[in-house]
Automatic annotation (TrEMBL):
SUPFAM superfamilies listed in its UniProt record: HMA, heavy metal-associated domain
Alphabetical UniProt keywords: Metal-binding
UniProt-listed PROSITE patterns: HMA_1, HMA_2
Domain HMA: 37-105
GO molecular function: metal ion binding
Pfam short name (any one): HMA
Name of the protein this chain belongs to: Copper chaperone
Species assigned in the record: Labedella phragmitis
């Protein structure tokens, strides 16, 4: 063991002249794979399966969207979960929902 090695963390002093610690180690690399991103919004005005289909179709048309799940709540705000391969903006979601003829109420807490 080198005299300049720190036992608490196992690190070597940068000023060490110890030959056994002076290695040309390759820098550590990591590969981060991003998973799906989900956004959840409340949509007002949906009353039936056709409404669900309309909202689903418009949201699925946004680039990167891989799934849309709608929990219909007749007479209230329906919960819509949009899953995508990359983040999408609230403006994109609002525009798609408006194109289907409905209104985004709020994001659930």
């Amino acid at each position: 063991m080198c005299a300049t090695e720190r036992n608490d963390l196992g690190l070597t002093d940068a000023n060490s002249s110890c030959v056994c610690c002076a290695t040309d180690a390759a820098p550590a690399t990591s590969s981060v794979t991003a998973g799906p991103v989900s956004a959840e919004v409340l949509v007002d005005g949906m009353t039936c399966g056709h409404c669900v289909q309309s909202v689903t179709k418009e949201l699925a048309g946004i680039d990167g969207v891989s799934g849309v799940d709608v929990k219909l709540n007749v007479g209230g705000s329906s919960t819509v979960t949009v899953t995508s391969t990359a983040p999408i903006t609230a403006d994109q979601i609002n525009a798609a929902v408006a194109e289907a003829g409905y209104t985004v109420a709020t994001s659930p807490a």
